[in-house]
Amino acid sequence: MAKYIPNNSTISPVVNADTVTTNANLTGHVTSVGNAAVLGSFTVAQLSTAISNATLSGNNTGDQTNVSGTAATVTGAAQTNITSVGTLTAVTVSGNINANGNIVGDDGTNITNIASVSCDNIYFDGDGATGIEMGANDVSIVDSDGNKNTTFTNDTLEVGVDSTIKIIFNNLPTSNPGVTGQLWNNSGVLNISG
User: Fold this and answer.
1) What is the SS3 string spanning the chain?
2) pTM value > 0.70
3) Domain residues of the chain, as ranges?
4) What is the reported pLDDT for 173?
5) What is residue 169's predicted lDDT score, i.e. its pLDDT?
């Protein structure tokens, strides 16, 4: 309903519009103090045109938690923002892999086609913590307590480095093999063939 006050009045005319039935042709941001009960429908193209800092295309439904298709190339420093990538079925890395934590397998994981491995120690978890310890010029077999049982140093084999061990030679020849340096069992006496 419109209220009209004559122009010769000292009070400015006031017009209250109950309903606008024509197109308003609004541009830019529209701020409404009251309720807008029905906004109508918009196409993706219309929304994409209206949004100034993004582009919309295709079907966009619900939270975009699963995205399919070809992944884009990340050009920024995304690694500081990515905390987890979930479970990957396969991944190919063309550069270096810098691991600041542990790499844990599932007892069925194989690492293959590696030209060389540089590390401090290698441990086998099948029977505790038996491992191979690598020094500057030696390689040692260590037990679960860290004791060195056998150490190879240059051209020297040292057995029982940190503890007393038992050496058992099974199936030695019982006669002189005639090979210089070969061990043989001479009726319970250990001999070295000359």
Assistant:
1) CCCCCCCCCCCCCCCCCCCCCCCCCCCCCCCCCCCCCCCCCCCHHHHHHHCCCCCCCCCCCCCCCCCCCCCCCCCCCHHHCCCCCCCCCCCCCCCCCCCCCCCCCCCCCCCCCCCCCCCCEEECCCCCCCEEEECCCEEEEECCCCCEEEEEECCEEEECCCCCCCCCCCCCCCCCCCCCCCEEEECCEEEECC
2) no
3) 168-194
4) 93
5) 86
